[in-house]
Design brief:
- The complex is a heterodimer of chains A (264) and B (297).
- By secondary structure, chain A is α/β, with parallel strands linked by helices.
- Chain A has a single domain, classed as Rossmann fold (3-Layer(aba) Sandwich), CATH 3.40.50.970.
- Chain A has eight helices and six strands, in the order E-H-H-H-E-H-H-E-H-E-H-E-H-E.
- In chain A, helix 3 runs parallel beside helix 4 and helix 5 runs parallel beside helix 6.
- Chain A is globular, with a radius of gyration of 17 Å.
- The N terminus of chain A is likely disordered.
- By secondary structure, chain B is an alpha/beta fold.
- Helices cover 37% and strands 21% of the residues of chain B.
- Chain B contains twelve helices and twelve strands.
- In chain B, the strands form two sheets. In chain B, strands 2-1-3-4-6-5-10 form a seven-stranded mixed beta sheet, sandwiched between helices.
- The interface between A and B is medium-sized, with 32 and 30 residues.
């Protein structure tokens, strides 16, 4: 595990995993060395589901960069199921980075939110599953996304709306990409959420180094400066992700930066 | 007389006390007027700072949880700057809320073009399902705001300092017939009414008063046109011609002519007063009378 809570860092060191240039593109191969057989089996199962959408065993980096973090969230962290997907008190996951949603759909199918047999229609006229998700078409999908920079502000509003109704227990998660942080709307949201002390708010940044200008000083530092609780972890290490996702952060919103191999 | 914005603040503050579903989202503008409401309802009345994308995103997020958000700032910062948030954080998500703007097209001419938003209604017209309200008096604004807060629809209420001297009944359909004549139909929108009535003094025309422009009350217009020549003049306090297509759609099955008057696309690059600005746009009573008269012949 390499959880780095609120620590300043300049160099990323993956203590348990692969070097970026030695990564296979099959999801099962992303399991870190020494990972339990359960995680490997999970990823193999999800890889098969993704294959139903793409007709291919191999998947684009945009699709798989989110897979491990999504799986850990849905399998172990989020308190939401197909049966509770309409409950006011459910945890909410907002996929802001709507590009490459195959991993998301695969997780939703594995968890029973959507039927496996809709996966093969991915992107088709009759299919509910677009290349960007639509909340009005897909059970369990909290927001329609695709245009970058909308999820974090919507998540802030969701937390405020829940809080206003006395629902202080549900947690709200939003997934954004590192390049998505280029969008100024995110900075409006994170600069507000910290001082507002939105403890129910959680941001997961999948960092595959795809921002053209990088992020001098690091991603977490932006959030930390705004008063967030932060953690940067290996985005392929399920135990590290789980620990980062579940660490307490009283009175502050939380960001987890999950670093994965750079986008090719 | 109080302004429509004063009335909005007073009305919304009371509504927040009464309706636990209602939320207010500000982006600094009007925070002083709402100070008491912000203090009394810290969970439902929030000021997000000078962040207009967040203003709309927060409203959308609140709506996703079942709240009824009212979002407010000046028109340009409410509609133009975060326009994609309106399109995606409300329409695309399938949720609804209330937008209340101040400033309109020319409320603060001395502030210049950065604080003028003549294009807001035309922009909103590209989106599906928004009701657009343009009251002409604080009493009308209060009626429309109360209706908007109580409904489940997406509503844009456009407030201005520019107002008519007296309030008129606000019809549910959107347009009220004030005068009947035979040479044509003049549709005055919101605060343009007093100038239109002055311009139409002694002219044999029907005068309609519109406070809801979307959806456009085509039925009332058709009834008016049935008793008059089918020549229609629209006088709108925002971009000229914004509702011309709506008039054409309402009269699709009969020959007609339409003149769309309002704010021009070109900047005047003048400061001064509202009256001077309206005269500069050809929307004072004298200019309106000339333009209406020459169109109707």
């Amino acid at each position: 595990m390499c959880v780095m809570d609120n620590t300043t860092y300049t160099t990323y060191t993956a203590s348990t995993t692969h070097a970026p240039d030695a990564v296979s593109t099959t999801p099962a191969a992303h399991a870190p060395a020494g990972a339990d057989r359960g995680a490997t089996a999970d990823l193999a199962r999800l890889g098969r589901l993704m294959g139903l959408m793409t007709g291919d065993e191999k998947h684009s980096p945009a699709a798989t960069s989110t897979l491990d973090a999504l799986w850990v969230l849905y399998d172990r962290v989020l308190r939401v199921s197909p049966a509770t997907a309409g409950d006011p008190g459910r945890d909410r996951f907002l996929l802001s980075k709507g590009h490459g949603p195959m991993a998301y759909y695969a997780v939703l199918a594995d968890k029973g939110f959507i039927e496996e047999d809709v996966l093969s229609g991915f992107g088709g006229y009759e299919s509910p599953l677009g290349h960007h998700p639509d909340r009005t078409l897909v059970p369990g999908v909290e927001i329609g996304s695709g245009s970058l920079g909308h999820g974090l502000p919507l998540a802030v509003g969701t937390v405020l709306g829940l809080r206003a109704q006395g629902l202080t227990d549900p947690k709200v998660w939003v997934l954004i990409g590192d390049a998505e942080l280029d969008e100024g709307s995110n900075h409006e949201a994170l600069a507000y959420a910290g001082p507002a002390g939105l403890e129910q708010l959680h941001t997961l940044v999948i960092d595959n180094s795809s921002a053209s200008y990088g992020r001098p000083g690091g991603i977490a530092s932006r959030f930390e400066a705004a008063g967030w609780s932060t953690s940067t972890v290996d985005g392929r290490d399920h135990e590290a992700l789980y620990a980062a996702f579940t660490a307490p952060h009283p009175g502050r919103p939380r960001v987890v930066v999950a670093r994965v191999e750079p986008k090719q | 007389m109080d302004t429509m914005r004063d009335r909005f603040i007073a009305t919304t503050s009371r509504l927040l006390d009464d309706d636990p579903r209602l939320a207010l989202v500000l982006a600094e503008i009007s925070k002083d007027g709402f100070r008491e409401a912000l203090d009394r309802h810290p969970e439902r009345a929030v000021n997000v700072g000078i962040r207009e994308q967040l203003l709309i995103g927060v409203g959308g997020g609140m709506a996703l949880t079942g709240m009824r958000p009212i979002m407010h700032t000046f028109a340009g910062f409410l509609v133009e700057r975060p326009f994609e948030q309106l399109k995606l954080d409300f329409g695309h998500q399938g949720v609804h809320g209330v937008l209340v703007s101040a400033g309109g097209s020319y409320d603060w001419p001395a502030g210049g073009f950065t604080h003028m938003s003549p294009g807001d209604v035309a922009l909103m017209d590209t989106l599906d399902g928004w009701t657009v309200q343009v009251p002409g008096h604080p009493d009308e604004a209060e009626t429309l705001l109360r209706r908007a807060a109580a409904s489940d629809e997406s509503v844009y209420v456009r407030l201005s300092v520019h107002a008519n001297a007296a309030a008129h009944p606000v019809s549910r359909s959107g347009i009220t017939t004030l005068r009947e004549g035979s040479r044509g139909v003049v549709v005055a929108v919101g605060p343009m009414l007093d100038s239109v009535l002055a311009a139409a003094e002694g002219l044999d025309v029907t005068v309609l008063y519109a406070t809801t422009v979307r959806p456009f009350d085509g039925a009332t217009l058709r009834r008016a046109v049935a008793g008059s020549r089918a020549d229609v003049v629209l006088v709108e306090p925002y971009l000229a011609g914004t509702s011309t297509a709506a008039v054409n759609d309402a009269l699709v099955d009969r020959p007609h002519r339409v003149l769309g008057l309002g704010i021009g696309r070109g900047e005047l690059r003048r400061y001064g007063s509202v009256g001077e600005h309206l005269a500069g746009q050809g929307l004072d009573p004298a200019a309106l009378r000339t333009r209406i008269g020459s169109f109707l012949g």
